[in-house]
Amino acid sequence: MNTHTSRSWHSGRPYSPAASSGEWVYVSGQVPVRADGSTAGEDAGEQVAQVLQNVRAALEAAGSRMSDVVSTQVFLTDITDIDAVDAAYRDTFPEGAYPSRTTVEISRLGRPEFRVEISAVAHHVPGD
User: Fold this and answer.
1) Whole-angstrom distance, CA of residue 44 vs CA of residue 90
2) What pTM, to 2 d.p., does this model score?
3) Could you report the per-residue pLDDT of 27-52, keeping only the tens digit for each?
4) Which domain of life is it from (predicted)?
């Protein structure tokens, strides 16, 4: 197993933003935090966009890319934010190539202002 650290913000807690094993890359739950540690907006759309940027950064640190993502888990503190997630997915992934997705509502995340967290699994064949 290889662990990967991206240039994006990292909490300093004992986990890797991404880990790879063979052709698989596992991205830990990413939250709406900019590289400087500040939270990206109060709006769900802004937060989802930042989270997906963080997922992208973690994948790139592992030598992968968003088009390799096969599955995501989305955690929302308010399920009505699902429309913002859908819009961001349409902007991020090509139509017809959306990854599988599990979306659940939870009571809270790591900071009170966080509305979304997303983890991902990607299948990356080196040289592809």
Assistant:
1) 15
2) 0.91
3) 999 999 998 989 999 899 999 999 99
4) Bacteria
* Pairs from 108-112 (Cβ < 8 Å, separation ≥ 24): 108/77, 109/31, 109/75, 109/77, 110/11, 110/31, 111/31, 111/39
pLDDT given for residue 12 in this prediction: 67
- Nearest-angstrom CA–CA distance, 52 and 115: 13
Phi-psi region of 12 (alpha: psi -120 to 50; beta: other; left: phi over 0): left
**20-47: buried (b, 16+ CB within 10 Å) or exposed (e) per residue?**
beeebbbbbbbbbbeeeeebbbeebbbb
Beta bridge partners of 73: 102, 119
Superfamily of domain 2-123: RutC-like (3.30.1330.40)
CA–CA gap between residue 80 and residue 70 (Å, rounded): 24
